[in-house]
Structures are given as C-alpha cells and as structure tokens.
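Training component of the fellowship. As part of building independent skills, the fellow (R.M.) carried out the full modelling exercise for a liganded target. The chosen ligand was magnesium ion. The inputs are recorded below so that the supervisory panel can assess the work.
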Amino acid sequence: MPRSTTTVVEIKTATEIATMREAGRVVARALAACREAAQVGTSLLELDEVARTVLEEAGARSSFLNYRPRFAPTPFPGVICASVNDVVVHGIPDNYRLRDGDLLSVDFGAELDGFHGDAAISLVVGTGTSADETLIATAQEALAAGIAAALPGNRLGDIGHAIGTIGRRAGYGMPRDFGGHGIGRRMHEDPSVPNDGKPGRGFRLNPGLVLALEPMFMAGGQDEYRIGPDGWALSTIDGSQAAHVEHSVAITEDGPLVLTEL
Ligand code: MG
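Fellow's submitted model of the complex:
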C-alpha cells in the first residue's frame, strides 16, 4: 500500500494476538489450497473460488473483496489477488488459465472475530526457469530476514534494511511507494513498512505491534512500475518477472511470531 504520513499505531494484547493467529491460520490454509490448485490449465477465477471455499468453511470474511483504497477506481472484485509473471501485486482474478512456466503470486486476506490476517505466496506453475526460481527464493529469503529483524527494541528501518539489502544485492527492483503495513482490526494500519531502510532508524518495534511484511522484487532491476487499465494490477515497467511473498508477524517479548503459517 502507498505510504501514509500520519502514524497511529494500535498495540495488540496477547488475547488479540491469539485471535489474529486464528485469522492467520485461515489465510495459511487458503494459500496452501491455492498452491495445490495452481496447475497448468487452472483459471485465476477457479483459484479465487478455492479461496472462497476456505473462507466459508472457516466462517471468515474476505479482507480483499470490495476493498477500495484511495488509488483504486473500483472495489476489488476477488478474495485473492492473482498476479502472473510481470504483474507484481493486485492482479484481479479473471478467466486467464495458467500456463506451464508461469510465475504466479497469490495474496490473500481473511477477517475472523474482528481481526485480519494477510499473506502472499509466489510459485512457478509446472516447470519454471531457474531465474524465476531464484527470484522467488530470494523474496522468501528477504521475508525471512525481515521477520528475523522484527524484534522488540529494533526499529522499522532494521526490517526494511534486512529486506532491501537482499533484494538490492541480487540486482532486483522494488516498486517505489509500496511495502508492508500494520495489521489488526483493519487490514491496513500504521505504520507503513518500507522494503528498504536504514538500520536503527524509524519507528520502534514494541511487543504487541503486528506487521505485514511483504517483499516485492522485480527481476529487471528498476523501481518504476505501471498500473494496468483496470486501475489495480501493478506491473514491472520493463516486462520482467516479479515475485511477492508476505507474512503477518507479531512482535512479542519472545521474538517474532508468524501468524500466517499453518
Ligand atoms: Mg499486505
């Protein structure tokens, strides 16, 4: 999401974090189901349907359906964002059928008992190129490094530095103005979590802060991006491939707690 200017940060209690863990499990289940369903010939709308079924079975609501941030011309029509190849994030699920070698990113959010979880995976459909496998693996490595930096007493810049250093070292671009965010009773809360930063700088990470960390890497190495005709899909400027991975993570006295894994 685009960075905001004023910062109002909600600190969660242990009970609220436990509730968010349950919302996160729903997110993890939906993404696992989408990963399994993402075969050659599967349409993006069919993947959306897979995720809707997980929501229904869990008694949860979609965080994405009908969501309309300031930049968007229309409410989002799906429960997943399905972003293929040069689409980085915010792809609207449509009739497109996955092909062998496609790089697919699926982003999904669920609300359960008043709290949201938000996560994303990237994968190769069928047999991919080694360049795409490396792009995805590097995004996952950056996410893990960001999570490892989500420690009480650290600062927001430590997370951004951890993520950004790995992306830059690999020569990848990162879309300007987009990154992670606080999450809780709303899907997008303060603070914004840039995917680059200076160690020791920025907002202090205290127990009870919950953040969605989401590296977005573009293979062509440019930070510029373009928005598609639907007003949503964010694509690389040079047609190069992109990967996006995300977890919602709580900062606790005992270290980072990943909320959106099984
Ligand atoms: Mg997010």
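The panel noted the following from the submitted structure. Residues 14-258 form a domain with the Creatine Amidinohydrolase fold (CATH 3.90.230.10). Residues 118, 181, 212, 214, 246 surround magnesium ion (CB under 6 Å).
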